[in-house]
Hints:
The strands form 2 sheets. The chain has a 6-stranded mixed β-sheet with strand order 1-4-10-9-6-7, with no helix packed on it. The chain has a 4-stranded mixed β-sheet with strand order 3-2-5-8, with no helix packed on it. It has one helix spanning 3-24; strands at residues 32-33, 37-42, 46-47, 50-53, 59-65, 74-77, 82-85, 90-96, 102-108, 114-119. It is elongated, with a radius of gyration of 19 Å. The termini are far apart. By secondary structure, the chain is an alpha/beta fold.
Amino acid sequence: MSTDQIIVTIAALLAIGGIYRLFLGKRTSVATKANGEIEIIVDGGYTPETIEVPSGKPTVLHFVRKDPSSCLEEVVIADLKIRRPLALNDRTDITITPSRTGTLRFSCGMGMFHGTIIVK
């Protein structure tokens, strides 16, 4: 193998490793505790993407959509049968009162962007 081939092979392997880590690597995120209410910014995803809420107590989720992408036009919390449109550059309030502990998922209408609600 020539020096050029070795350099290209090493660069390709590093690029493959970087892409794998970026898109398929395990993501850990710390849950942000909601104390009765929490603001979730919708801009290329959800920030914070993991929130912690108490079981049996109402929590208001304030979704603020800043991304004009049509994918993020609505939010879906399937386990609670909630599907709401999100107006661009506006706040949409959704009140939830989960009755049992566990994990709930929320996503955009197309299921491409996700978030997690941890009920304790």
